[in-house]
Every structure is written in C-alpha cells, then in structure tokens.
Specification:
Helix content: 10-25%
CATH architecture of the largest domain: Roll
Structural class: alpha+beta
Distance between the termini: 34 Å
CATH class of the largest domain: Alpha Beta
CATH topology of the largest domain: DNA Polymerase III, Chain A, domain 2
Order of helices and strands: EEEEHEHEEHHEEE
CATH superfamily of the largest domain: DNA Polymerase III, subunit A, domain 2
Largest sheet: 4 strands, antiparallel
Number of strands: 10
Strand order of the largest sheet: 3-2-1-4
Number of helices: 4
Shape: elongated
C-alpha cells in the first residue's frame, strides 16, 4: 500500500530512463520504501502501512515483495486518483493506494487499486525494466555520526528557495557558523546563512536562519 512514499517522485530524473522512475520495495514488517534520484539528490522515503488484513479483499498482498520501478508520471497519476476517490474517508486504511504485489511479478505491469468501499478503481501501471543504481552505500555513509547536528522548520527552507527563485538566482550558497561546546565537545551550529544572487541583474538576497536546538 502506498501513500506518502509516492512523494519521492519529485526527485526522479527527467533524462535517464531508469531514474525517471521510483523504486518501491519492502522495508520490514508493514513498511514500504520508495527510492528516487535525479543524480544530484537521492530521496529515500519509508512509511508504515496499516495491517494488510484491513485492506479490501481483492487488494490483499504480503509486504514481502519483489522490488519494482514505476515512472514518476504514473506515481503522480496514482496520487491524483487516490485523492479523488478516497477524499473525505474516515477510514485511514482507505487513504492508501493498494498494490497487488503478488501479481506485479506476473507481467510487465503493476495492478493498483483505489477505493472508498462504494467505488473501486483499478489501473495497471507499467513497470520500468532495468537495474536501479546501488543506493544503499550512500545511505550507509550518510548515517555515520556527523560532526554536528541541527534542524530546520521545513517551511523556512521552502521560503528560502522561493525567494531565490523569485530573484532569478541560479543556486543557493549555504554557510554554517558554529560554536564549540556541543554534545561530546562537538561543534554546535550557531547560525546558517543562505546567499542567493542573480548574476544577470545583480540582485542579491541574504537569509540568516537560527537552527533549532536538537537534543
């Protein structure tokens, strides 16, 4: 069953055929993982899904399934269908799109079911054939203890990006100013400065963000 993992589609590549898709795989008991990359950003999204015993009978399937890749466009179509059919439902399990993983390996497509119990829609989404890059090594590296740890309100980062785009900046530079005396004597981020500039007309923007304290 898929819900939040569909959001990984925004990081799929627009050029490389394999990377134009999102890889879905089992991630343990009642968890599903989506992986997407555009070669600059790697996104790994995991979510816990309701017990499959609560799913519609025709959509039941185990959470131990062979990984498959579907295109970012098809993920968007599933997301649109999910919102339209299950809008306003009071049953959390119906907020998910149900993937019949048992039949996904039978041919070149994946059966997807969305229902509000009164209306049920099934579509068959073609799988992208090919070998997805080995992404786990990068994630393992990213899980090593960092030199420091901080956090931001995601709305702040969205606003910073919106301002940079509004002035026509080609990129955002980030500088971190730290102070000593953190956990185990490590550095504690004191302030993060984001700089953006439009090299064409000389417009610049400087945004100073105070990180949240991470316990």
């Amino acid at each position: 069953m898929l819900k939040h993992t569909l959001a990984a589609r925004v990081f799929a590549s627009k050029n490389n055929p394999i990377l134009q898709g999102v890889r879905f795989e089992a991630a343990g008991e009642n968890r599903v993982r989506a992986v997407a990359t555009n070669t600059h950003i790697l996104a790994v999204v995991e979510e816990t899904v309701p017990d499959v015993a609560d799913a519609p009978a025709k959509a039941k399937a185990g959470m131990d399934f062979e990984p498959f890749i579907i295109s970012a466009d098809d993920c968007q179509e599933i997301e649109t269908l999910r919102h339209r059919i299950a809008r306003g439902t009071r049953l959390p399990v119906l907020e998910f799109a149900f993937i019949n993983t048992a039949k996904a390996k039978d041919n070149g497509s994946v059966p997807v079911i969305v229902t509000d119990l009164e209306k049920t829609v099934m579509i068959r989404v073609p799988k992208i054939e090919g070998e997805f890059p080995n992404w786990k090594g990068l994630v393992k590296m990213a899980e090593e203890p960092p030199s420091f740890h901080t956090a931001f309100d995601p709305d702040y980062l969205i606003t910073i990006c919106q301002l940079a785009k509004a002035i026509g900046a080609a990129q955002i530079d980030m500088r971190i100013f730290d102070q000593q005396g953190g956990v185990d004597g490590g550095a504690v981020p004191k302030m993060v400065v984001f700089d953006a500039a439009n090299e064409g007309d000389g417009t610049t923007a400087k945004m100073l963000v105070m990180p949240r304290r991470v316990e």
